[in-house]
Amino acid sequence: MSAGTTAPLARRVEHVMGMPISLALRGRHTDDAAADAAWAAVLDSLRDADRVFSTYREDSVVSRIRRGELTVADAPDEVHGVLAIGARAERASEGAFSVWRPELDPSGVVKGWAVERASAFLRALPATDFCLSAGGDMVCRAGVGGPWRIGIEDPHDPARVLAVVPVRDGAVATSGTAHRGAHLVDARVGAAPGAVAQVTVVARSLTDADVDATAAYALGPRAAEWLGRRVGRSGLVVWADGTTSTVQADTAVMGQSSRPAGAPESATFARSLGRSASTSSVPSSIASRAWRATSAGAILGTSRAATMSVSM
Fold first, then answer.
1. pLDDT per residue over 23-33, tens digit each?
2. First-to-last CA distance in the chain?
3. How far apart are CA 132 and CA 160, in angstroms?
4. Can you give the C-alpha Rg of the chain in angstroms?
């Protein structure tokens, strides 16, 4: 099927890990037993992650570690894996990102990691495109139809889409405080940075996109400069004063002449930003519409700090 061909779309939504989990499928397996089994496996995987990592459940592994009932050394292997990702991000961000604040809180890693892990069940569906969202952070694959088109929400005006990013095989994550308040802090000082309003990152994996969006946000005025040194990441930083900065994936550092998988396809974030801001092709009410199916060439969803809305 060509990129311009409209593929039938099936949509599913559940509430897991304290947030909406949304799935769009198109291609061979959209509404059959194979799709049902893959969706069930995705939800089981996310519920398992919640049982281990939730900071709200008293019976979770993380809560037991925080109460001193279990040592990190005795924790399951997935805890060690998540903490290793957090430790790398802490080093890369010079301490602005940390899973110890001061007690263990791996939330800045877990969502992207858990959704990326769960997406393996969707990747196993042959000839089937998917876009899996957790609270607005998304991992997508396209091959049957055209690229999924992800709108980037304006944190200063949630009804406005700042840019539209096409994604064929990659992930989009956004960190900000527009929907959840000041829950993101620079771990070095224990306070929220004041210069930045929102950071969106596009990368190959949602683990990388989510962690880097959070770390860049925590770095405040250095967000764009830091993202510019991250290999294979593209980004859009929205500053507190409403201005924006775009970051393009550094293909030269990767030793490649073409864009890395997962990076925006239609030229650059900057062009996408200018095009969507200067035309009326993006409905101003898109952020309030949930799961409305139209053509495959329109916007699938809005990447935002806490919630997901879908319009195609």
1. 999 999 999 99
2. 18
3. 22
4. 19
Q: Are 53 and 110 in contact (CB under 8 A)?
A: yes
C-beta neighbour count of 97 within 10 angstroms = 29
pTM for this predicted structure? 0.82
17-60 pLDDT, tens digit per residue, is 999 999 999 999 999 999 999 999 999 999 999 999 999 999 99
Taking Cα atoms as reference points, which of 258, 164, 174 lies closest to residue 217? 174
| Region at 94 (left for phi over 0; alpha for psi -120 to 50; beta for the rest) | left
Helix 107-118 with 206-218: angle, nearest 10 deg = 160
Contacts of residue 84, defined as CB under 8 A and 6 or more positions apart, other chains included, come to none
Q: What is the DSSP string of 78-141?
A: HHHHHHHHHHHHHHHTTTSS-SBSSSB-THHHHHHHHHHHHTHHHHTSTTEEEEEEETTEEEEE
